[in-house]
């Protein structure tokens, strides 16, 4: 599969997941401002992990249209992915710390899920660093996008399957 095809598919999935977030909001009984903090965090994760890969895919597609193709295109994309993801992680960590311990303890799997995806996220970010420093290949950049999309899908499934608190 060519990078442009893979990025196009990832962008479509990102748009679909962001749209699903709207569906979740519409079908809940209460307004978003009435949700518990942990449910708001899940919505934020779903939206961010949909929009971030969409933006990164569009960036990759934009750079692919440049003639001649810029040298180090995938290094640049991995660098931008690394910076954007680190900023996102800092914002989410701050929000997660504000969630009350009682909310987290109500759902026993919540810390496990966050730490599991956190570990995969660290691996994805180390892969970006490796790509910047040595590889300069497409697949590590795309792996970062796939990680974010899988995280968004998991958050969507959790929001649909878990009852509102």
If you had to describe this structure to a student in words, what would you say it looks like?
This protein has 165 residues and is mainly alpha-helical. It is built from six helices and no strands. It has helices spanning 3-27, 37-65, 73-98, 101-106, 110-135, 138-161. Helix 1 (3-27) packs parallel to helix 6, helix 3 (73-98) packs parallel to helix 6 (138-161) and helix 5 (110-135) packs antiparallel against helix 6. The chain starts with a helix and ends with a helix. The mean pLDDT is 85.
Largest sheet: none
Report the portion of residues in β strands: under 5%
Summed over residues and divided by their number, the pLDDT gives a mean of 85
Low-confidence stretches: none
Roughly how much helix do the residues carry, as a percent range? over 70%
- The beta-strand count equals 0
Shape: globular
- Number of helical segments? 6
**Cα-to-Cα separation, first versus last residue:** 43 Å
User: Radius of gyration in whole Å, from Cα?
Assistant: 17 Å
Structural class, judged by helices and strands?
A: mainly alpha
Can you summarize this structure?
This protein is 82% helix and 0% strand. The chain is mainly α and 165 residues long.
């Amino acid at each position: 599969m060519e990078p442009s095809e893979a990025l196009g598919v990832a962008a479509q999935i990102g748009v679909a997941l962001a749209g699903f977030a709207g569906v979740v909001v519409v079908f809940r009984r209460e307004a978003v401002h009435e949700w518990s903090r942990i449910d708001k965090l899940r919505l934020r994760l779903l939206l961010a992990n949909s929009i971030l890969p969409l933006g990164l895919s569009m960036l990759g597609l934009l750079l692919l249209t440049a003639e001649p193709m810029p040298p180090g295109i995938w290094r640049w994309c991995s660098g931008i992915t690394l910076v954007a993801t680190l900023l996102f992680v800092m914002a989410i960590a701050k929000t997660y710390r504000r969630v009350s311990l009682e909310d987290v303890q109500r759902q026993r799997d919540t810390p496990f899920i966050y730490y599991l995806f956190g570990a995969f996220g660290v691996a994805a970010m180390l892969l970006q660093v490796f790509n910047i420093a040595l590889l300069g290949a497409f697949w590590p950049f795309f792996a970062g996008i796939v990680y974010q999309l899988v995280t968004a899908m998991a958050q969507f499934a959790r929001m649909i399957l878990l009852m509102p608190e």
